[in-house]
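@channel sequence for tomorrow's demo:
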Amino acid sequence: MSGLMCSRILQKAASCTLSFSCSASLQWMQIGGRSTAGALGGRCLSTRQNMDFQLNQIQVNSILQANEQAVSIPWFDGRSLSAVRKFESNHLAANTPNEDRHGAATCLQTPGTLFGVFDGHGGWACAQAVSERLLSYVAIAMMSLRSLEELEWLMEQGRPVPAVLQWYKHRGDVSYQKSASFYREQLRVFWQELLDHGEHSDGMSPAEAMDYAFKRLDTDISLEAQVPLSSDLLKSTAIQVAFTGCTACVAHLDLEGIHVANAGDCRAVLGVQEDDGSWTALPLSRDHNAQNPAELQRVRARHPPSETATVVSEDRLLGVLMPLRAFGDVSFKWSRELQSSVLQTLESGVDLDSLNMYHHTPPNYLTPPYLDAAPEVLYHKLRPQDRFLILGSDGLWDEMGSQQAVQLVGEHLSGVHLQAPVSDQGLKLGQMQDLLQRRSARATRPSDLNAATHLIRHALGTSDRGQLCPERLAAMLALPEELARMYRDDVTATVVYLNSDLSKPQKS
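structure tokens (generated this afternoon):
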């Protein structure tokens, strides 16, 4: 967002007030390093003009459910059993256009299913490109050299090439067709180089493939913005992809277990059902931001001691960027000279402000690169009590914790709301009434069949007392486009249900 646009939005926000019940109002917060209007809290804006938020229940449900997706996965696809029973996903935009993306696909040449959530910043271009390309890079890296040789031979002969992935696309998914053929050419270059190296004759393991694919795709994004391309459109797109950025969290599931590769602040959480029926959240990724001491130390260790105070300041990379790992974002990777040289190759009619709010070199830019897309890969061996996996962008996790998300999905799945006995010890009458109201709300049949929608509804509509507040939810959904991003982020959630029976010990 340009400084001018941000200023206009703030001026408009200063003349409005948002009010509703459920003990919640809108307050100011920090987004992207600048003061803007933010999440729900306890202070009201001082304003001059009331805004009317009168969405009824039908309208609320229509908005929330517009991008739902639910896909059942065959337990046997003719080659192998599947660890995934089905998945449900949804997303709700705050930016215009939405900067989040997600993807799901079954690997056709190797066992396993891939899921990804991609959270863009500074624009949507990088998230779009990564969502279209990264899962294919992972799938190719897991293939044996013999299979890759067959692909290359078919390409050389001009014959049909078998698909590497079976994608599960939603009718609302964005597809940038103008770059599709170029991306296919680059994917071929990727497998040709794997063939030239001749390593991993049986294909890389999921962990190796994910690590290699993340790094290689980020390198490709950087190089594609620097080299001559066949058209001005491709060149402009490549530069937009490179100067915007995105975080990514990708999961590979097979009968043995789950590998999660994460770069940034998206998150993967496993829902575990204990013997007593209760639900436990098991993190399968770690957020790469300033709240992670190990990540903070990793980033600072890559630069001279003289930069310790400036590499990460105000919980942001160089005081600007919240995630400490990401694709693209070459403003944090290239030298000043390279950035200037590449931008000068654009046609004079291109608006540089449309590329990225960070295309200007950040302050204290002394020893680049400051950012990379190397993922942290974690592995979990599947057990019978592992029931589902939640992948979400930070717009979800900004509003709820991992345990709350697992509790919501677990109770949605089982229909059982486990609650400890009520004790009046130390509780005043008002507190007791509040507790009973919250319990009544939790015991109510959910409005959504789709668990991802259920998560988004609660993320945006839960008051500070833990109640699902219809007025709060309606207000959040009724925000006009120019104000929505000031009060919430894009939210994306995917819930993957596991074939738990396949993890049970087999009887002889």
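heads up for whoever presents: The CA atoms of residues 67 and 90 lie 5 Å apart.
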